[in-house]
Amino acid sequence: MSQRDLVAELRAAHVEAPSEVRERVRLIAAGAPAAPRRVTWRRALVVVVPIAAAIAATIVYTRPSHDTSVVERAIAHQPGTVRASIPAAPSGDSAAKAFALPSPTNRVQKYEATLSLRVEHARDVSDGVKRALRITTSFGGYSSSVHAETHGGRATAELTLRIPRARIQAAMAKLAQLGTITDENVSTVDQTALLNTTDREIARLQKQLAALRAQPTSPDNDRRIAALVTRIERLQRGEATTRRNAHYATVSLHLETPAATVVRQHTHGPLHGVGVALKWLGIGAVYTLAIGAPVAVLLLLVWLGVRVVRRRRENALLEI
Amino acid sequence: MTFQQAAEAHLDDVYGYLAWFTSDRFAAEDLTAVTFERALRLWHRFDPDRGSVRTWLCQVARTVALDHFRSERRRVRREELAAPPEAIDFRFAEGLSPDLESALARLTPGEREVVALRVLLELDAGTAARVLGISPTNCTTRLNRALKKLEEALHVAA
Q1: From the list B29, B44, B110, which residue is nearest A21 (CB)?
Q2: What digits encode the pLDDT tens for the residues A131-150?
Q3: Are strands A142-151 and A109-118 parallel, antiparallel or unpaired?
Q4: Which among A49, A88, A225, B105 is least buried, having the fewest CB atoms inside 10 angstroms?
Q5: Among residues of chain A, what percentage have pLDDT more than 90?
């Protein structure tokens, strides 16, 4: 008999399970639960992709804002002798009111204010200068100096404004609206006592002058009268200057763009968070590889050994 | 496909495979039931993308049969001391000549297993090799060796 005939005869053989075995298996199969839902890679993908997207979006949109911190750092490092820091950028009105000092009408005071404002763009600095000059003029004041500078994406402007003391609070409120206040400094020096002293001195000198003029004319008397007149005039001019200066408040207005160049240098794209996450994943992967690779190789060798032993035992069992 | 459908469709295949593998009808009947019990427990692990139900059931049946062979070997070693094992009169299938039955009985379990898978169940070399846990080439070699032994046995009998 050839192998082909042999195979044909073997294939022609019919093997059927006995009825009692069939019945036992039917009973076993009857206890089978409903088919469970299988987790295929497509189903897994439907779940995994949105979760991954959500994680990526969270990383991207919840990363700390570098712009704010850079601006805050830039502000913190600005030089200044007396500085009034403002924790949160308040509105112009509230900031101006917070730093406004009462201005009694019967007192003569020297008022000086420094106002630093941050604007977003370089063109806002230019606009701010124009608006500041208009505000100053509208309150009856004038600008004593204006200096604006643009360098790259950064712009600054320094203005010294002279505004009538009586309207300084309203003017400061208007000026504060030109940008976000980063610094504000107000100082007043009362000049009334100084003026009173001067007045008394003038009165005393005028009394002396009247007494000298009542005496008979002599060259010596004329010289003393001339000296007294000169002194009285000098004191009166000084007093007038003090009063004139006190009539106008001096406002040093500083406009600048944020440390935008610094921000631009560190501007991160929308996928920066993903990049950072991938970087740390890479570092983790390297460590895992360094530690896990030897362990994995060892486990592989053990698995291969166990497999070989099992195969040999199996062959011996089946007499192969 | 439900488990009931799978059991109904492939019961004869599993029984035939085990019967030829063990060359013991009573053992094959018990092992068939054990196979389906185990298959029911493992049914959630079955993945149709990795192979057919019949292949998977044969793999389960093979594990069950190997456990049987191990316990049987321990039992025989124990009982051989008291009494020699009895020869079992077993018919592998309906329609086989007595000489072929005798030649099949003289094959080792490993040889009968590969004949059952490749010839009786008509599995291709790759599928049979997967059930046996060997390479397709090794499977074919093992089948050729078994058929040659059958051929020689039939030649001697003739």
Answers
A1: B29
A2: 999 999 999 999 889 998 88
A3: unpaired
A4: A88
A5: 30
Region A192-208: mean pLDDT is: 91
pTM of the model: 0.50
Which of A5, A10, A307, A314 best tests the B interface by mutation, with the highest count of B CBs <10 A? A10
Q: pLDDT (tens digit, 9 = 90+) per residue, B75-108?
A: 888 877 666 656 556 677 777 888 888 888 889 9
Picking from B101, B119, B123, B140 by the largest number of A CB atoms within 10 A of its own CB, the best residue to mutate is B119
A121 φ, ψ (degrees, to nearest 5): -125, 165
Q: How far is B136 from chain A (nearest CA, A)?
A: 16
CA nearest neighbour of A162 among A176, A143, A178: A143
Residue among B8, B109, B115 minimizing CB distance to A319:
B109
